[in-house]
Design brief:
Blueprint lengths: L1 H32 L10 H30 L1 H9 L1
């Protein structure tokens, strides 16, 4: 039983790390690399910027869900420490 929970926690941790990396890369590319507003007028980069923004938003939603799963898996530990 404990080994099964450990595998679940490891899986959730790996998935959350991957999602965090995707959030970081898409956020930094949109913020620092791709042109903003009038600078991208008529460019293919504006389409890529919108695509990365969509990826960033959906990844953020998945990341929030994974964090809730992480909290649920650690709920017994959280309850025990809140009682102290």
């Amino acid at each position: 039983m404990a080994k099964s929970k450990a595998v679940k926690l490891w899986f959730v941790n790996v998935i959350s790390f991957i999602l965090f990396l995707v959030l970081t890369v898409t956020g930094l590319l949109n913020w620092l690399v791709l042109p903003h507003g009038y600078q991208a007028k008529g460019s293919i980069l504006i389409s890529f910027r919108h695509f990365l923004r969509e990826v960033h938003e959906w990844t953020a939603l998945l990341f929030i869900i994974i964090i809730f799963v992480h909290l649920i898996l650690h709920w017994a530990y959280i309850k025990t420490n809140l009682k102290k």
